[in-house]
Structure formats: structure tokens, C-alpha cells
Amino acid sequence: MTAPSPTSRSTPSGIPLPRGYQMLVTFAADTDVSLWEKAVQPPGVDGGEPIATTTQHNTTYRTFVPRVLKTLTPHTFTAAYDPGVYTQIIALVNVGTTITITFSDGSTVAFYGFLQKFEPAQTTEENQPEATVTVVPTNWDSTSHVEAGPAVSSVEGT
Q1: Does residue 80 sit within a domain?
Q2: % helix / strand / coil in the chain, to the nearest 5?
Q3: What CA–CA distance (Å, rounded) separates 18 from 1?
Q4: Please, which residues have CB within 8 angstroms of residue 83's CB and are 6 or more apart in sequence?
Q5: pLDDT of 158 over the 60 cut
Q6: Alpha-carbon separation of residue 110 from 35, 50, 71 (angstroms)
Q7: Which of 26, 72, 94, 139 could be bridged to 100 by S-S, CB 3.0 to 4.6 A?
Q8: What is the pLDDT of residue 2?
Q9: pTM of the prediction?
Q10: Structural domain of residue 80, as residue ranges?
Q11: How many domains does the chain divide into?
Q12: Is the residue at 116 inside a domain?
């Protein structure tokens, strides 16, 4: 049995975002939806659970292999809203569209998905009314009927 060889860490390329402000979410199906982003969690990438490959011939360790397919995880954001947004939300829920997240440096990640939930928070006198919005990436181009992952655009110098 051959043990793995250690690898040295290299300096990462690019420039880390210096702050979380400003991050905006655009729905292609309604680019001026009456939501004002306050806190945005972009989608993540999940490789799924490992596939167990252990057999009765293993003697010391359980073995695994990675899955092949990847999942773009749901993305959520908290936003202030105009009560009239309900009309826009009803028109957007469960409708496949392109969602674009624009980062503070101007970089973008665009993906196919749909608005799954609009959940207003409890309101109080001392807080601005907010809602949590959940977007589910589909990775499916419903126009061309093909699998399509996210499109990432980095700003020069990042």
C-alpha cells in the first residue's frame, strides 16, 4: 500500500473580497422586483455524500469514492420589501429564470433557478419589515432543454 505524499500550499490567485457590501440579486423574469437586499447568501456547491466502496476484503479502513455530479445549493437572502411585492412574488414563484448575483467587485454568478419561497418575518415597532427569500438553482435551461451549470464572470484584477 502506498501512502499519499504531502503537497505544499500555493498562494491563491485572485483577490479576496474585502467586505460583504454590496451584493445584489437579479431575477431575469423581473429585474426590478420590489425587494431591497440586506443580507445575501450566494449558492454553494455540494458534491453529495461519498459512495461507500468498502468490501469484505478491506482490512483496516472503510473506503469511499466521490460522486460525479454536483449540486448548486439553494441561495437565500433577507430583504426589505414593498407590500405590493406580493403581486411580483406570485408571478415569480416556481418560474424558471436566470438569477444573477452581483458581488461587490462587480463579479457575477448567473444560474438557472426559480424563486421557491418568500417568507416575511414577524414585524415589530423597532424593526424594518423583512422577508427571507429562497431561490433554488435548477441547472436546467428550460428553453433549450439542456443541463447548464452556473456562468461565472470575474472582474479584471480579481
Answers
A1: yes
A2: 5, 40, 55
A3: 45
A4: none
A5: no
A6: 18, 27, 15
A7: 26
A8: 85
A9: 0.90
A10: 24-44+72-153
A11: 1
A12: yes
Backbone angles phi, psi at 135, to 5 degrees: -120, 130
**Which residues 6+ apart lie within 8 Å of 139 measured at CB?**
72, 111, 112, 147, 148, 149, 150
Establish if 106 belongs to a structural domain: yes
Q: Which three cell numbers stand for residue 137?
A: 438553482
Cell numbers linked to 109: 454568478
Q: Which residue has the cell 437572502?
A: 77
Grade residue 43 by pLDDT with cuts at 50, 70 and 90.
Answer: very high
Length, in residues, of the chain: 158
Mean pLDDT across the chain, nearest whole number? Answer: 95
Largest CA distance in the chain: 66
Q: Per-residue pLDDT averaged across 98-120, rounded?
A: 97
